[in-house]
Amino acid sequence: MQSHNVYIGLGSNLDNPTQQVIDGINALAALRETQLLATSSLYASAPIGPQDQPPFINAVALIKTALTPIALLDALQALEQDAGRVRKRHWGERTLDLDILLFGEQTIEHPRLKVPHPFMCERRFVLEPLLEVSPHAHLPNGTALSQVLPKTLTQEIWHHCTLALDSLGSVAPQ
Length: 174
Ligand code: A4P
Ligand code: MG
Known about the structure:
With 174 residues, the protein is of the alpha+beta class. 24% of the residues lie in helices and 30% in strands.
């Protein structure tokens, strides 16, 4: 079966966000037909969207998966539910948000799934961790993400902690 390299954006700003993101990465590693290849550091940033919510912790994980895009989306939404996610408001607070950023070289326009993620190029908290994992990453149209990052640099983010990936594919803070 064909496998694809997929970048997942993780975000949390409720109920111990650092632990939520670490647990989220470990849950990605445990998905069927999926292998965790790399993870970024954790980054902290002010919320984009409603400002009356706590700051976010974000990271990007690179996985290799044989799941189809929609099967992966179903699996990610199940993990969000496991993390106790309640949908409150658009761009609002959440215990765990798992977004598919890039799925191989595919462009996907499905009622439930748009890839590349529609806002990824506007968000430093996505681009910076993704480029930490893969400095040469590009969009399906060939645009290098390193070329897109500079216009987001007015958004402040802070390096929060580095993660260590062990030989079993699980992560812990360093
Ligand atoms: N969906 C479509 N495309 C995708 C994709 N590529 N990956 C659909 C995942 N899901 C995708 O998502 C709504 C629907 O998007 C899903 O049912 C899926 O079928 P949602 O997470 O339930 O709802 P939402 O919060 O209204 O929208 P969205 O687009 O996920 O929000 P974002 O874009 O993730 O933004 N500020 C900081 N600093 N850090 C953050 O992480 N996150 C958000 C949420 C806002 N501000 C933030 C952060
Ligand atoms: Mg989402």
